[in-house]
Design brief:
This protein is an alpha/beta fold. It is built from 32 helices and 28 strands.
Amino acid sequence: MNRDPSRDKVRSNKKHLRSYTGPYVRTSARSGGRVTAPVLTNSTARDVIIYNAPGVSGHSTQTQTSDISSVIDKYKELICSEYQYVSEYNSLPGEQVLLSERFTQPLIIQRHRDQKEREEDIRSSSRTSDQSFCLNRLFDPDNHRISPRSSSRSSDQSVRLNDLFDPDNRRISPRAVILQGNSGNGKSFTVQKIMMDWASGYLYKQRFNIVFHLKCKEINRMSGEKSLEEILSYSCSLTSDQISQVLQETPEKMLFIVDGFDELRLTQDDHPKSPHTDLNKRATPEVTLCALLRGRILPESFLLVTTRSTATDTLSKLLKGPQRFTEIMGFSSEGVEKYFQGFFRNEEFFRKAYEYVKANETLITACSIPVICWIICTVMRERSNDGSDLKSGLETTTSIYADFVSTLLEHHCQGLSQSVSALLRSLGQLAEKGMLEQQVLLDEEMVKETVADPAGSLFLSKFLFKRRVHQEIMFSFMHLSFQEFFTALYYVSLDGNEFKKKFTNVCLKGQFEAVVKFLFGLMNEEVRHTLKRKQGVCVHPNTQNILKDWLFQQRDSLETLHHLFELHEESFVTEVLNGTSLVSVWDRPLRRIDCWALLYCGQCCQSMKQLSLYRWGLTSEKLAMILPVLHKFEELKVNMEAPMFISELHSEETDIASVNLSISEDLSSVRIETDRTGISAVTVTFPQSSIINFDWTNVFQEIKTQEQIDDEDRDMPIFSLQSLPGLKMMELSVWSLTECHVTQMISFSENCPSLRELRIKCFHVSEDGLRLLQKSHTRPDCELTIERIDIFDSTRRKISLTAGVFSMVEFRPSQIFRPQIEN
């Protein structure tokens, strides 16, 4: 075929013109051609090409460009008006909230994660540690399980929205960006934020003149054949004529955002052999959209496409290049906190809500999923609005997971090929298989044996991994905790006999502790009602009896409290625990969630038999959580090796042997025993609340620096206790009492107005000290008692000083020998 030299010249000139870096003006020619010219600067035009456009003047070009700019400005105003609000899942008609109050920047990474990293992320949790906020396990670059290279939840590694189309390290800029993410991870919210910020002039101001938003849900509802112009008219506020004008503008300044590609109903007919290249050609909406994605129409435009992982490989094969893959990970730990703060707006309310959720390791891990954050905040706010206590607004982990499943099925699910109950059952069977094999990454064959349409399941993620020269497809649940939840959901749907077999032979003989907790949570009356009404899942009546009978045999363990907490039925808690339960925790950190379980169970009971806590890492925060119910225990044994309330001092540095705590309904008592020969013990009694409102650091610091208190120049390590609010009684066990120490005792009693009794046990009292006592006076309402013990014959001398009255009695343990009273 002979080439037309004039066409080659035009193409050459057009190419040269596009290489010009200055601004352009474009307009449609009367006969369908195009006029392209640089804007005149300094009265100089470098290249002007006018072809196939007789009669078009420069004035008309400028006028039409101005008209298009006006159209785009109006479009931006409408976008700002529409996109500044969001409707939530439970919004009533006309009820909206500001996007700025709900949007929190999610983590976006720009790379594929390998199998090991994905497995670590899915398993990540803080169940075994309460040292910090559980998501920090993912963010700590020094964590032994996740290397700095593989850690994917670091805020520092997150890609900013403004950088999505920036050149890579090879200076290649993508034409198409894939934004992958699980259901409920914030893809659509992120798209809305991009639209809002672009229209407001905060994002892509120089990069894109126009941004269109196409929702695949809406495209699915379109009938007949449509051109791109007609599809866009459904999605934005512009008229068909205005869209036609805008599409004639520079395509290299256009961005099309296609939201929810995984929801697009594609068939083989949507991949025509003859390419669809005409901008105005009509075809089925799916075919027209595919032509845009392939770059058959407007090839110089840019694309941002969101999808779930189950459709990423299909999208990548369809999409034009150069491509960039990004993954939206949900929230970082900082993002979760920021979301709570934005949701509640009130600082005090936010802090209470956030700290409560932070105490539950399973929930705070799940809060990396934005929809979980929304569910938790919504439930807590509604309970608070009803006048309920804030902490009662979030009863169990199971109830939140059940709400999450309902939310996704109701708002993110289209065209299920099976009933909801059948889908949940198949997911539960798959989850159980993974649990039995201790696998969180499930191979494609296993998944397809159980789940009819794994690619269409909202609760599964799909991954491609390199295997030598091939690719391998694997699936997973969003997180291990969801795999555990679906396993429990499957078990409770079985009949009584089948459930008993599973519970006895599987749950009680493997790594199924979390599954057992979910089982008790699913027995909650409100949760069972929701499952039956919304998902068609019925719990067999015998299932609850089996679980309760088993629990009666386990009631002395801390895990019992967790099971009762998830069940959340006050009458049964009382039946199991009241007056008989002995709870012991040995040599393990008491987690915040342990404290909530203990608090809830204690509030349900009038009294319990005994609580023993040995070396459990007591902190003021944890003590404050359980303090309201400690007095309900008939016997309380609390013993720690390390100092209370301070982590920076270690027992080997302070010579503190033990710290023992006893609590009554009104008073607290702390006894500190040391390995010092000078002072061996200090016991203080004070109002219950003071134990968490007092800084104990100085007390332990004094003991740490104290050497031999029989040195006359050394102070006794007690003066920091003068500021202990409401101090009622103090008892010291010392080796020797000198004149200097007596002076300190008298001064202490005078300067502590709440003190009613000061007791000192010692083996020696100096003569000078004794004479000083005889001449001293104390407050009328404070008694000073010194008990001297003779280590050779066990003779004891009791010296008392009350309101200036000195008395001394010498006796053996069973007999008083000689009284002596002096005024």
